[in-house]
Amino acid sequence: MYRFAKGFTLVEIMVVLAVIAILLTIALPSDGGRINRVRVEESLKLVEQYKAPIEFYYRSNQFFPASNQSANLPQPHQIVGNYLAETQLIHGALHLRLGNKIGKNLQGKIVSLRPIFVPGVENAPISWICGYDTVPNGMAAAGENLTDLDPQFLPLNCRQRD
Description:
Layout: H1 10-27, H2 32-46, H3 51-61, E1 84-90, E2 93-98, E3 110-117, E4 127-130, E5 140-141
Antiparallel strand pairs: 1-2, 2-3, 3-4, 3-5
């Protein structure tokens, strides 16, 4: 009499492993969005030093500078970084055009940083918003929001709030 071994064949085990691998691939989130979000955050931090001259200009003149030149900032193509192709100042708002080593799907996209202030109050503090963030009640934002970057690539504080 022949005795048959009980268990799974190699083919059955391979099929089960293949199904598990496919399910894991679908279930695990891609970190490409997180990586690009960190790159955008790095670009935003790179231009932090230019906020003070813009605020000083506003305090001195009671209006925001119209361009890089009027705020005594470097030319747009001279404010660059690893993931930043240029930074242009238009009516007080800094517009960061992404480029250089950032992913191809984000090449040429813009993130805007805009100063917000209380109109008519000279000594009121100036704060900043970025991307699709909303202007708080009682305040106004300088410049136009030119952000065209998908919100998933923006830091949380740059996304629209409900």
